[in-house]
Amino acid sequence: MNHPDLKRFRFRGLHPRLFLGTASDRYAGWIGQIYASGRYDDRLTRRSHAVGGKTFTEQVLPVESVAEYFIHFPVLEIDATFYAPLLDAELKPTPTFRLLETYARHLTGEDGLILKAPQAVFARALRRRDRFEENPAYLDAELFVRRFYEPAVKLLGERVRGFIFEQEYQAREGRDMADDLAARLAAFFEALPRDHRYHVELRTEALLAEPYFRVLQRYGLGQVLSHWTWLPSLVRQFEMSGRRFSNAAGACLIRLVTPRRVAYEASYRQAFPFDRLVEGMTDPRMIEEAVLITREAIGQDRDVMILVNNRAGGNAPLIARALVERFLAEAEPDGGGETAARPSG
After folding, report:
1. CA 294 – CA 329 distance, rounded (Å)
2. Residue 309 DSSP one-character state
3. pLDDT, tens only, 61-106
4. Contacts for 219 with CB less than 8 Å, ≥ 6 apart
5. 3-state SS, one letter per residue, for 22-50
6. CA Rg, the chain, in Å?
7. CATH top-level class for 6-341?
8. Quick one: which of 61, 104, 312, 331 is 20 to 30 A from 77 by CA?
9. Average pLDDT estimate for 158-176
10. pTM for this entry
């Protein structure tokens, strides 16, 4: 195991089975941490983001800054693919495809991307202005394959380290039954190309039940362990699955998204402009449990990918550093010089 340069946020080579990254990149708030001061001053752009009735203006670095990002992290989650497929209905490239194409030009070596599947495929309901409407393309396997999966694989190949299928929280009224959802998911994944990079994130605790976990096991799908608003703790999610790692390639994916019981709007307002940790926002148990599960996975010779969001505490690089510090503090060398996990009990 290598000892990373934590002061300079260098997390590559931390452990051969641990891959640390963030949810999105290019934040001006990370200048001086991940990005060199002054390097992009004349190329920053602005984008407006409406959250909870208030408009926030973010400063964004050019895509080429991803080359500097990958000096620090081995993987990156691309969030933009959640909002639009890569090809339109006429199978022509969308702006999202062009964005991904630009990212691809700046990848080298072992740099890896984790892509979120479009909500147009995996969301049961889509937000239309001030309300949610049923998604007519929900679990449309052909749409996913032709307009997202095939162009993504053609463009990036093995640089895609994972596909995240994120489904929104379902309120009690109108919620799927666990058996019904499992059957629909089974039909969907049965129709997809076999691929060991699929990971599923359900955000409704009531649906994290045995029928769902059987589908994950049957198709080799990874269970995304997500520290998110209305989900139980990471360890509780892991226990609900019987502490199984179901991904066919043996990979475990952990996402640190928001504090528990804090809605998206509130977490965004607290975290903005993403340049420092917000006092009291990061739950120490989130770090502790992520490390505990990581150690258990590594102890079973499995790869672990951990993706950190600014909204989990204010600044993803600083949260990542706290996580690495905890990981190193709890690891001890075995006879072969690797990292041996202490018993979690």
Report:
1. 13
2. -
3. 999 999 999 999 999 999 999 999 999 999 999 999 999 999 999 9
4. 186, 189, 190, 198, 248
5. EECCCEHHHECCCECCCCCHHHCEEEEEE
6. 19
7. alpha beta
8. 331
9. 91
10. 0.93
